[in-house]
């Protein structure tokens, strides 16, 4: 799955890294930046962050809570 952010200059890919299946943190959040160096959020053009299933679930729950709050304020 791929999501474009920040006027399409930042792409977030989320995938299960099957090559790392023996590790608990095999869910990859890959950030790819296509912008000038002085506008980059990360130091490199591509940054991978590996998380566990529990951490992924925490992110899903946190996003759900923020969405609920946003819906209530509208």
Q: Mind explaining what this structure looks like?
A:
28% of the residues lie in helices and 32% in strands. It is built from 1 helix and 4 strands, in the order ββββα. The longest helix has 21 residues, at 53-73. The protein is α+β, with helices and mostly antiparallel strands. It is flat, with a radius of gyration of 15 Å. The mean pLDDT is 94. The chain has one helix spanning 53-73, and strands spanning 2-5, 10-16, 27-33, 46-51. A 4-stranded antiparallel beta sheet has the order 1-2-3-4. The protein has one domain (2-73).
Task: Kindly summarize this structure in a few lines.
The protein has 74 residues and is of the alpha+beta class. It has one helix spanning 53-73; strands spanning 2-5, 10-16, 27-33, 46-51. The longest helix has 21 residues, at 53-73.
Helix-strand string: EEEEH
> What is the straight-line distance between the termini?
28 Å
Enumerate the spans where pLDDT stays under 50 for 5 or more consecutive residues. none
| Average pLDDT level | 94
Helix content: 25-40%
For the largest beta-sheet, the strand count, sense and barrel status come to: 4 strands, antiparallel
Structural class: alpha+beta
Number of helical runs?
Answer: 1
The counted number of beta strands is: 4
Beta content: 25-35%
Explain the layout of strands and helices:
Blueprint: E1 2-5, E2 10-16, E3 27-33, E4 46-51, H1 53-73
Antiparallel strand pairs: 1-2, 2-3, 3-4
Offer a few descriptive terms.
28% helix, 74 residues, flat
């Amino acid at each position: 799955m791929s999501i474009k952010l920040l006027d399409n200059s930042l792409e977030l890919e989320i995938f299960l890294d099957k090559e790392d299946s023996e590790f608990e943190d095999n869910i990859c959040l890959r950030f790819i930046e296509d912008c000038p160096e002085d506008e980059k959020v990360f130091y490199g053009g591509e940054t991978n962050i590996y998380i566990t299933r529990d951490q992924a679930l925490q992110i899903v729950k946190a996003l759900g809570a923020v969405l609920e709050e946003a819906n209530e304020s509208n």
